[in-house]
Amino acid sequence: MTDDARSIDIDRQITALTEIVGALATTVSQLSDRVEQLNKANRSRDQGDSSGSHEPAAWVWFSAPAVAEDDTDTTDNPRTTVDDFVAWYNITYVGIEGSRAKPIPGCWRQHPGLAMEVATLAFSWREANIGPAAKPRDAQYWHHQWRPGFIDRLNREWTHADCLDSEHRAVGAAQRPDRFTLAEKKLPVEEDNT
Fold first, then answer.
1. Among the four 50, 64, 99, 133, which has the fewest Cβ within 10 Å?
2. Residues 32 and 99 grouped into a single domain
3. Which of 158, 94, 156, 91 is nearest to 120 (CA)?
4. In the chain, how many domains are there?
5. Is residue 60 part of a domain?
6. CA separation for the pair 65, 81 (Å, rounded)
């Protein structure tokens, strides 16, 4: 092989290697961008950032319950989220006549233990089913573990049978105001002078 042929062959090899390295650099850049997107999503989720997607996951068969942060007219009040979840739960998860799957009674706020559990049930459902971090395994775990455990405690520990029949009867811990109501009572009401 002549020196000119070797030089041409080396130039071709350099060009081919340059194209390969360029393609690899593009791939690395794309992967780096994707890693940054995932890190940003995880940071937002860990910090409770509500600017992420509030879309239900593909497996959420019915419209998801409304939540406070989806309504720009609210003050992002968690009570709205829990109230909407209770209404949605009661039209979705009621079982056959005589089953343990009862609706959450209207007096749920008057039973402190039940109110605490209803709130965590609402937000755990949301975590498992809404937004980019939702996972079908978590959703199934919610159905298999959390919801049945909640129903068992609802029927045995938090309420009287009368409550489940829409006639509240005080049992267990005494009713008390939630922290949001207490905070509202301490703050002066601002008047709109416009």
1. 99
2. no
3. 158
4. 2
5. no
6. 8
